[in-house]
Design brief:
With 220 residues, this protein is α/β, with parallel strands linked by helices. The protein has one domain: SGNH hydrolase (Rossmann fold). It is built from 10 helices and 5 strands, in the order H-H-E-H-H-E-H-H-E-H-H-E-H-E-H.
Length: 220
Protein backbone atom coordinates (compact mmCIF):
# COMPACT_ATOMS: atom_id res chain seq x y z
CA UNK A 1 0.00 0.00 0.00
CA UNK A 2 1.33 3.39 -0.89
CA UNK A 3 0.09 6.86 0.09
CA UNK A 4 0.00 9.94 -2.07
CA UNK A 5 0.70 13.48 -1.04
CA UNK A 6 -2.44 15.55 -0.32
CA UNK A 7 -3.21 18.63 -2.36
CA UNK A 8 -1.88 21.80 -0.73
CA UNK A 9 -4.30 24.08 1.10
CA UNK A 10 -4.57 27.40 -0.74
CA UNK A 11 -5.41 30.67 0.99
CA UNK A 12 -6.81 33.77 -0.73
CA UNK A 13 -4.12 36.47 -0.87
CA UNK A 14 -6.59 39.13 0.30
CA UNK A 15 -6.80 37.64 3.79
CA UNK A 16 -4.85 39.23 6.61
CA UNK A 17 -2.32 37.30 8.69
CA UNK A 18 -4.79 37.26 11.59
CA UNK A 19 -7.37 35.61 9.31
CA UNK A 20 -4.95 33.20 7.64
CA UNK A 21 -3.61 31.52 10.78
CA UNK A 22 -7.00 30.25 12.07
CA UNK A 23 -7.87 29.09 8.56
CA UNK A 24 -4.70 27.02 8.25
CA UNK A 25 -5.17 25.57 11.74
CA UNK A 26 -8.75 24.59 10.94
CA UNK A 27 -7.69 22.98 7.66
CA UNK A 28 -4.98 21.00 9.42
CA UNK A 29 -7.34 19.75 12.12
CA UNK A 30 -10.07 18.81 9.68
CA UNK A 31 -7.69 17.20 7.20
CA UNK A 32 -7.53 17.75 3.47
CA UNK A 33 -9.48 14.51 3.01
CA UNK A 34 -12.59 15.84 4.72
CA UNK A 35 -12.37 19.25 3.08
CA UNK A 36 -11.86 17.86 -0.41
CA UNK A 37 -14.84 18.92 -2.57
CA UNK A 38 -17.22 16.12 -3.41
CA UNK A 39 -16.11 13.63 -0.75
CA UNK A 40 -19.21 11.64 0.30
CA UNK A 41 -20.68 12.51 3.70
CA UNK A 42 -22.43 9.92 5.82
CA UNK A 43 -26.20 9.74 6.14
CA UNK A 44 -27.10 10.29 9.79
CA UNK A 45 -28.07 7.22 11.86
CA UNK A 46 -31.71 6.49 12.49
CA UNK A 47 -31.19 3.95 15.28
CA UNK A 48 -28.62 2.36 17.55
CA UNK A 49 -26.50 3.36 20.52
CA UNK A 50 -22.98 1.96 20.03
CA UNK A 51 -20.05 3.48 18.16
CA UNK A 52 -17.91 0.70 16.69
CA UNK A 53 -14.65 0.57 14.76
CA UNK A 54 -14.56 -2.53 12.58
CA UNK A 55 -11.70 -3.79 10.48
CA UNK A 56 -8.22 -5.24 10.34
CA UNK A 57 -4.92 -4.63 12.17
CA UNK A 58 -5.07 -0.91 11.42
CA UNK A 59 -8.21 -0.79 13.56
CA UNK A 60 -6.80 -3.16 16.17
CA UNK A 61 -3.82 -0.80 16.43
CA UNK A 62 -0.96 -3.14 15.60
CA UNK A 63 2.26 -1.20 16.10
CA UNK A 64 0.86 1.27 18.62
CA UNK A 65 1.56 1.34 22.33
CA UNK A 66 -1.41 0.88 24.66
CA UNK A 67 -4.02 3.60 24.28
CA UNK A 68 -2.42 5.16 21.19
CA UNK A 69 -4.20 3.30 18.38
CA UNK A 70 -6.38 5.62 16.31
CA UNK A 71 -9.60 4.31 17.84
CA UNK A 72 -8.42 5.08 21.37
CA UNK A 73 -7.20 8.50 20.27
CA UNK A 74 -10.61 9.27 18.72
CA UNK A 75 -12.40 8.09 21.86
CA UNK A 76 -10.26 10.35 24.03
CA UNK A 77 -10.55 13.38 21.75
CA UNK A 78 -14.33 13.16 21.41
CA UNK A 79 -14.99 11.84 24.92
CA UNK A 80 -17.17 8.99 23.71
CA UNK A 81 -16.71 5.24 24.09
CA UNK A 82 -15.80 3.45 20.85
CA UNK A 83 -15.87 -0.34 20.73
CA UNK A 84 -12.76 -1.59 18.94
CA UNK A 85 -13.61 -4.61 16.80
CA UNK A 86 -10.40 -4.72 14.80
CA UNK A 87 -8.73 -8.05 14.16
CA UNK A 88 -5.25 -8.65 12.83
CA UNK A 89 -5.17 -10.24 9.40
CA UNK A 90 -8.81 -9.66 8.52
CA UNK A 91 -9.80 -9.58 4.88
CA UNK A 92 -13.15 -8.30 3.71
CA UNK A 93 -14.32 -11.92 3.57
CA UNK A 94 -13.33 -12.87 7.12
CA UNK A 95 -14.72 -9.57 8.39
CA UNK A 96 -18.04 -10.34 6.67
CA UNK A 97 -18.10 -13.70 8.43
CA UNK A 98 -17.96 -12.04 11.86
CA UNK A 99 -20.13 -9.03 11.10
CA UNK A 100 -23.21 -10.34 12.91
CA UNK A 101 -21.41 -11.21 16.11
CA UNK A 102 -19.06 -8.26 16.33
CA UNK A 103 -21.18 -5.43 14.93
CA UNK A 104 -24.84 -6.08 14.18
CA UNK A 105 -25.53 -7.78 17.50
CA UNK A 106 -24.18 -4.74 19.39
CA UNK A 107 -26.85 -2.20 18.46
CA UNK A 108 -24.62 -0.07 16.23
CA UNK A 109 -25.25 3.64 15.77
CA UNK A 110 -22.06 4.63 13.95
CA UNK A 111 -19.59 2.15 12.47
CA UNK A 112 -16.12 3.08 11.22
CA UNK A 113 -15.15 0.47 8.60
CA UNK A 114 -11.51 0.08 7.55
CA UNK A 115 -10.78 -2.94 5.36
CA UNK A 116 -9.07 -3.83 2.10
CA UNK A 117 -5.34 -3.77 2.73
CA UNK A 118 -5.04 -7.48 3.46
CA UNK A 119 -7.10 -8.32 0.39
CA UNK A 120 -4.54 -6.50 -1.72
CA UNK A 121 -1.59 -8.17 0.00
CA UNK A 122 -3.17 -11.60 -0.59
CA UNK A 123 -4.04 -10.95 -4.21
CA UNK A 124 -7.82 -10.97 -3.80
CA UNK A 125 -9.47 -9.66 -6.99
CA UNK A 126 -10.73 -6.10 -6.64
CA UNK A 127 -14.26 -7.10 -7.58
CA UNK A 128 -14.35 -9.71 -4.80
CA UNK A 129 -12.98 -7.25 -2.25
CA UNK A 130 -15.66 -4.70 -2.96
CA UNK A 131 -18.43 -7.27 -3.26
CA UNK A 132 -17.66 -8.34 0.32
CA UNK A 133 -17.15 -4.79 1.52
CA UNK A 134 -20.41 -3.76 -0.13
CA UNK A 135 -22.31 -6.44 1.78
CA UNK A 136 -20.73 -5.26 5.04
CA UNK A 137 -21.70 -1.63 4.51
CA UNK A 138 -25.18 -2.45 3.20
CA UNK A 139 -25.99 -4.68 6.15
CA UNK A 140 -24.83 -2.06 8.64
CA UNK A 141 -26.81 0.65 6.87
CA UNK A 142 -29.79 -1.70 6.80
CA UNK A 143 -29.86 -1.53 10.60
CA UNK A 144 -30.16 2.25 10.48
CA UNK A 145 -26.56 2.86 11.53
CA UNK A 146 -24.27 5.40 9.91
CA UNK A 147 -21.07 4.20 8.26
CA UNK A 148 -17.75 5.98 7.91
CA UNK A 149 -15.81 4.10 5.25
CA UNK A 150 -12.06 4.56 5.61
CA UNK A 151 -10.05 3.87 2.48
CA UNK A 152 -6.47 2.77 1.90
CA UNK A 153 -4.47 3.36 -1.26
CA UNK A 154 -2.94 0.18 -2.67
CA UNK A 155 -1.19 1.31 -5.86
CA UNK A 156 2.26 2.73 -6.46
CA UNK A 157 1.41 4.41 -9.77
CA UNK A 158 -2.37 3.94 -9.83
CA UNK A 159 -4.90 3.02 -7.18
CA UNK A 160 -7.47 0.36 -8.15
CA UNK A 161 -9.31 0.90 -4.85
CA UNK A 162 -9.84 4.66 -4.81
CA UNK A 163 -12.77 4.84 -7.23
CA UNK A 164 -14.34 1.71 -5.73
CA UNK A 165 -14.40 3.15 -2.20
CA UNK A 166 -16.01 6.34 -3.47
CA UNK A 167 -18.58 4.50 -5.59
CA UNK A 168 -19.51 2.28 -2.64
CA UNK A 169 -19.87 5.26 -0.30
CA UNK A 170 -22.13 7.09 -2.74
CA UNK A 171 -24.26 4.02 -3.41
CA UNK A 172 -24.87 3.23 0.26
CA UNK A 173 -24.95 6.64 1.92
CA UNK A 174 -21.69 6.05 3.77
CA UNK A 175 -19.20 8.77 4.56
CA UNK A 176 -15.72 8.41 3.12
CA UNK A 177 -12.25 9.15 4.48
CA UNK A 178 -10.09 8.43 1.41
CA UNK A 179 -6.50 7.19 1.53
CA UNK A 180 -6.10 7.42 5.30
CA UNK A 181 -2.42 6.39 5.16
CA UNK A 182 -1.51 9.14 2.71
CA UNK A 183 1.95 10.52 3.57
CA UNK A 184 2.20 8.12 6.53
CA UNK A 185 3.07 4.88 4.78
CA UNK A 186 6.77 4.68 4.00
CA UNK A 187 7.83 7.36 6.48
CA UNK A 188 10.12 5.90 9.11
CA UNK A 189 9.15 8.50 11.71
CA UNK A 190 5.48 7.51 11.44
CA UNK A 191 5.70 3.73 10.95
CA UNK A 192 6.22 0.84 13.37
CA UNK A 193 6.94 -1.57 10.50
CA UNK A 194 6.46 -1.66 6.74
CA UNK A 195 2.64 -1.50 6.85
CA UNK A 196 1.61 -0.42 10.36
CA UNK A 197 1.89 3.09 11.81
CA UNK A 198 3.45 3.90 15.16
CA UNK A 199 1.82 6.13 17.78
CA UNK A 200 2.47 9.28 15.74
CA UNK A 201 1.10 7.70 12.58
CA UNK A 202 -2.05 6.50 14.31
CA UNK A 203 -2.57 9.98 15.74
CA UNK A 204 -2.56 11.36 12.20
CA UNK A 205 -5.07 8.70 11.17
CA UNK A 206 -7.32 9.76 14.04
CA UNK A 207 -7.10 13.40 12.92
CA UNK A 208 -8.28 12.38 9.46
CA UNK A 209 -11.24 10.35 10.69
CA UNK A 210 -12.23 12.76 13.45
CA UNK A 211 -14.12 15.37 11.37
CA UNK A 212 -16.46 12.75 9.89
CA UNK A 213 -17.19 11.23 13.28
CA UNK A 214 -17.53 14.62 14.94
CA UNK A 215 -20.10 15.69 12.34
CA UNK A 216 -22.22 12.59 12.98
CA UNK A 217 -21.98 13.07 16.74
CA UNK A 218 -22.89 16.74 16.28
CA UNK A 219 -20.27 17.91 18.76
CA UNK A 220 -18.14 21.05 18.54
Amino acid sequence: MFGRHPAPVTVPMSLTKREVIPLLVAATLAGAWFLRPGVPRAVEPSSGRTIIAFGDSLVAGHGATSGHDFVSVLSTRLRVPILNQGRNGDTTRTALDRLNQDVLSRNPKIVIVLLGGNDFLRGVPVEDTFAHLGKIVERIRGRGAAVILVGVSVGLFSDPYGHEYEALARRTGAGLVPDVLDDILGRGDLMADSIHPNDRGYRLMAERVEPSLRELLQVD
